[in-house]
TrEMBL record:
Any one biological process term the GO annotation gives: galactose metabolic process
Native organism: Microbacterium sediminis
NCBIfam families xref list: galE (TIGR01179), PRK10675.1 (NF007956)
Protein name per UniProt: UDP-glucose 4-epimerase
Any one annotated GO CC term: cytosol
The family this protein is said to belong to: Belongs to the NAD(P)-dependent epimerase/dehydratase family.
Length: 339
């Protein structure tokens, strides 16, 4: 099938483009390149031997989306990765987050419906689940907007509501909501990976920067949680497993509207992730036990059985696979894509 990847030059988009090409689909990337580099197009070709044309543009702008269809359409599906996604930043910049994360969806759906797409696959998040008492989260777990702690998560839940209402009056459009847990890792080639600008908010890229000596020490945010080792538990999923989940959703999703958790269902603590990274590096890494970070949950992880049942997809890669591939990417690209 022919797929337009909005935000397709980003971390998850790039890995998904590779998985789609390797599964025999055609892909076109639409990206404003504010949080990535155009170099990924060449890296995708190096890995797959196939081309993923890159349209420089903003998914919220009708003219840019129309241009992608005019120049490279028609498309069977749009996969929508084009969002701002830093939880802490969203608290400081709510308007920018609601504007960007909703306008992109409005525009992509509007143009997509006019141009006859049959599938819209949305990059959602496990942070839409609002009640820790529901752990491990199934797709039916509580999702109460007012109980979510930040504009990022709220904007993603609002998107799900918009897409649900649109699909109800457009039965010709299949909508699939993919709720990611914690995507980490990099393609085993070491040619593509996560390349956050500035000092990383997230644990895995921060540990990688400490491992290469770009940052002095890891701050462990909180050692007094009600968890086995006192540090936060998360459901880390290898980005290649996540990408393969998108191929399964494109090929297997049922008509209508469906949501799927894309996670491993196996919670890993901060200290366990750091130990895994130390095994990959072959030495201990400097770490500081620090106070909890505002807004953090003690634990979040999913029950991924619905995706396995209905999409025939299951995350296969371990935390050691994730840290090994991040270390390989970080060593080969100490400054990310900007050589
Ligand atoms: C993980 C754990 C921290 C940094 C992310 C994304 C969000 C969403 C879900 C997609 C926590 C601890 C962190 C550090 C630490 N993704 N930590 N030291 O907060 O779960 O959210 O995944 O929707 O967009 O932000 O991920 O990597 O920031 O934190 O101890 O320097 O690591 O307390 O327990 P989080 P994270």
């Amino acid at each position: 099938m022919r797929v337009l990847l909005a935000g397709g030059a980003g971390y998850v988009g790039t890995h998904t483009a590779i998985a789609l090409l390797e599964a025999g689909h055609d892909v076109v990337l639409l990206d404003d390149l504010t949080n990535t580099s155009g170099i990924v197009s060449e890296r995708i070709h190096q890995i797959t031997g196939k081309r993923a044309p890159l349209v420089a543009g903003n998914a919220a702008h009708v003219d840019d989306v129309e241009r992608a269809f005019d120049d490279f359409g028609p498309f069977d599906s749009i996969m929508h990765f084009a969002a701002k996604k830093a939880v802490g930043e969203s608290v400081q910049q709510p308007l920018a987050y609601y504007r960007n994360n909703l306008d992109t969806t409005y525009t992509l759906v509007k143009v997509g419906l006019q141009r006859g797409i049959s599938s819209f696959i949305f990059s959602s998040t496990g942070t839409v689940y609002s009640d820790p008492a529901d752990l491990p989260f199934t797709e039916e777990a509580s999702r109460n907007l007012v109980e979510l702690s930040n504009p990022y998560s709220k904007s993603k839940l609002m998107n799900e509501v918009v897409l649900t209402d649109v699909q109800r009056v457009h039965p010709e459009l299949n909508v699939t909501l993919l709720r990611y847990f914690n995507p980490v890792g990099a393609h085993p080639s070491g040619l593509v990976g996560e390349d956050p600008k500035g000092i990383p908010n997230n644990l895995m890229p921060f540990v990688a920067r400490v491992a290469v000596g770009a940052l002095p020490a890891i701050n462990v945010f909180g050692t007094d949680y009600d968890t086995p080792d006192g540090t936060g538990l998360r459901d880390y999923i290898h980005v290649v497993d996540l990408a393969e989940g998108h191929v399964a959703a494109l090929e297997k999703a049922r008509p209508g509207l469906a949501a799927y958790n894309l996670g491993t269902g196996k919670p890993v603590s901060v200290l366990e992730l750091i130990s895994s990274f130390e095994r990959a590096v072959g030495r201990e890494l400097p770490k500081v036990m620090a106070p909890r970070r505002d807004g953090d949950l003690a634990a979040t992880y999913c029950d991924p059985s619905k995706a396995e049942r209905e999409l025939g997809w299951k995350a296969e890669r371990s935390i050691d696979d994730m840290t090994r591939d991040v270390w390989n990417w970080q060593q080969r690209n100490p400054s990310g894509y900007e050589a």
